[in-house]
Amino acid sequence: MSMSDVISFLSSPAHQRIALTGHQRPDADSLGASVGLSLILRGLGRVANPVNLLPPPPGLDFILDSCPIHQASPEEDWTKDYDALLVLDCGEWERLDPVNRQAKNRLPVANLDHHASSLTGIGEVAWIEPQASSIGEMAVQLAAAAGWALSRDAAQALWTSIVADTGRFSYDNTRPATLKAAQACLEAGADPVLTAHYLFQSTPRYARDLQARLLTRAEFHHQGRLALSWLTPADFQAAGCGSEGTQNLINTLQDTAGVEVSLLVSEPPEKPPGRGNSVKASLRTLEPHDALRVVKRFGGGGHHRAAGCTLSQPVEAAVRLLQKAVSEEFFPPPHQ
Fold it and tell me: How far apart (Å, rounded) are the C-alpha atoms in residues 42 and 17?
């Protein structure tokens, strides 16, 4: 399946009302692409809305003025208001919020994803492009191939998606195709200063509090090539926030001179249904280290340089378990 299959799906006369969603705890790529594609589809005369359980993460309200989220409740059968679902930045049903998983077997589903761990995607049609920097990049390419117009507001949302997932065009997922998609957004009226202000120059104070706690606890191993830290429920309580405070926090470790691999394990106060000690681990790597090789041991996924997993055990036990796996995978002792 390919881009053309997704274009045909979205162009179908049977799909006049389209819901768009992404993974749990949406980030700038997932939400930016949902908003951007919703606005593009609205320009075609479709009813199109981002649907999610949680409110948007801090700093992303600015892309929602022209396209608010349909924030569904667990008791609401929101699927009755739509003819189709477009799942973005996620290739497994398990990574969707419970309210969005309601759509399984209720709505026709198309899927766009760029995670290397996504093999076939989900739904009737899927376009999986692991080489793409972001769903925002894929959305711009989709619109261009279909001949769909890119409004200023859609361009702003998709520019935000691209900039966030490329680390301001500093990660190794930045390709010529990425810059062409970014150029298309700028030509359609996206304001790079606006996105930079909200994404990179407006860090909430609670996130700075968590950052300080992370740095106080940070450990460096293997001659400084591995950096790790963790956050406990008490840290989140003291900072006055939940998992939203961890957005991009791992970069504090990864951006340290000499660090090749960084690990952040956190146990935010909100728990997935039916889980006790549920901790989230994030892993970032530089070449040649492949983050997926570690997280797949624990049922996780993501990209080769940025991946994650969830473990059901106390946070400090999870840290040591993952530290051992990282050390075995990337820093084995020299042969005797």
Answer: 10
- In tens, the pLDDT along 143-194 reads 999 999 999 999 999 999 999 999 999 999 999 999 999 999 999 999 999 9
Angle between helices 28-43 and 135-146 (to 10 degrees): 20
Is there a contact between 168 and 174 (Cβ–Cβ < 8 Å)?
A: no
Pick from 309, 305, 286: nearest CA to 296: 309
**Which two three-digit tokens encode residue 214?**
């992370």
pLDDT reported for residue 223: 96
Predicted confidence at residue 190, as pLDDT, reads 98
Q: Which domain range does residue 285 map to?
A: 205-330
Q: Count of domains in the chain?
A: 2
Q: Which structure tokens are listed for 261? A: 């691999």
Q: Six-digit token pair at 5?
A: 């299959």
User: For residue 335, is it within any domain?
Assistant: no
* pTM for the model: 0.86
Confidence band for 288, pLDDT divided at 50, 70 and 90: very high
Question: Looking at 177, 200, 223, which one is the last position of a domain?
Answer: 200
Residues paired with residue 226 on neighbouring β-strands, in sequence order: 221, 261
Are residues 320 and 179 part of one domain?
Answer: no
Question: Residue 46 in contact with residue 18, Cβ under 8 Å?
Answer: yes
Q: How many CA atoms within 13 Å lie on the side-chain side of 62? A: 20
Amino acid at the residue 9: F
Cα separation of 27 and 161, whole Å? 9
| Pairwise CA distance, residues 120 & 117, whole Å | 9
The torsion angle over the Cα atoms of residues 254, 207, 132 and 193, rounded to 10 degrees, is -110
Which residue is it, tokens 């819901």? 19
In a shared domain, residues 310 and 297: yes
> Residues near 195 by Cβ (< 8 Å), separated by ≥ 6?
62, 156, 159, 160, 163
State how beta strands 301-302 and 306-311 pair.
antiparallel
